[in-house]
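A reminder from the course coordinator: this example appears on the midterm review sheet, so study it carefully.

Given structure:
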């Protein structure tokens, strides 16, 4: 897939890594559609990127994802790439964390991408060349104890991505995983002490994460592990 004339949906594309993906993929000549939930951020995106499209969706909600699907297959019948980028990271101390919040990260990081993929898959399978890319994390492989449900949900997404790739082998749909390392776009908001520990880990600029993703897809590297993520995977295996 050369990523120059594709029609690409990016969930959670109004900020951070998703926004950087939108900019770089649009600059290559692709048609880019982003989603978000926050109406202000969506309209800000539309104003600053008039050539790109932005739609609201709640990735954890089947009805919302189905509404998006109906709009997009009508507005962009050639849609052929889905990037499941929307994600949520919470700092969690199991001794004090409210049980009611446990499901949030599992829903956004794991159930959300599965839902979006399942709803869009029939359409992708009709395209002559198509792809799904799931955004996991370096700490899927080497669990981060300060964000344990995040790590678990991203490891779950890694596992789902592997099985999806296997089931879709022989179809027109390629399945990729991008596992970014810690980046210049902060995600973790733990205590001061937690942050002091995290601050020892180098941050990769998000433009480099995204350019590594693009060259990985172009070379059919199905598991794209930029920067420190390769090391985290090796360390994770040694830890097991
Ligand atoms: N930043 C890092 O260092 C890092 C490292 C490794 C992996 N990652 C992964 O990379 C991805 C992007 O991270 P980021 O830091 O760039 O994220 P971000 O700036 O926090 O953006 C998250 C995006 O996801 C959307 N979103 C969140 N929950 C959603 C939901 N339930 N339904 C629909 N959209 C939702 C947000 O939309 P609204 O703003 O409208 O809610 C926003 O557009 C995530 O999957 C993350 O886990 C990030």
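Designed residues:
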């Amino acid at each position: 897939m050369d990523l120059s004339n594709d029609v690409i949906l990016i969930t959670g594309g109004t900020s951070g890594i998703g926004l950087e993906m939108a900019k770089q993929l649009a600059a290559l000549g692709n048609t880019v559609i982003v989603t978000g939930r926050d109406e202000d951020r969506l309209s800000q995106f539309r104003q600053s990127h008039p050539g790109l499209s932005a739609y609201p969706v709640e990735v954890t909600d089947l009805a919302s994802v189905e509404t998006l699907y109906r709009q997009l297959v009508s507005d962009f019948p050639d849609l052929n790439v889905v990037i499941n980028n929307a994600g949520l990271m919470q700092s969690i101390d199991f001794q004090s964390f409210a049980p009611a919040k446990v499901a949030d990260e599992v829903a956004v990081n794991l159930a959300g991408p599965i839902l979006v993929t399942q709803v869009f898959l029939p359409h992708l399978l009709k395209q002559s060349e198509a792809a799904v890319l799931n955004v996991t994390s370096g700490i899927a492989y080497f669990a981060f104890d300060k964000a344990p449900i995040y790590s678990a949900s991203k490891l779950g997404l890694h596992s789902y991505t592997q099985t999806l790739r296997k089931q879709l082998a022989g179809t027109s749909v390629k399945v990729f995983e991008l596992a970014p390392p810690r980046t210049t776009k902060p995600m973790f908001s733990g205590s001061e002490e937690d942050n002091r520990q995290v601050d020892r880990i180098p941050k990769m600029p998000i433009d480099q994460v995204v350019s590594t993703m693009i060259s990985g897809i172009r070379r059919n590297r199905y598991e794209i592990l930029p920067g420190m993520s390769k090391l985290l995977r090796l360390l994770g295996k040694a830890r097991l």
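The chain has a mean pLDDT of 95. The longest strand covers residues 31-36.
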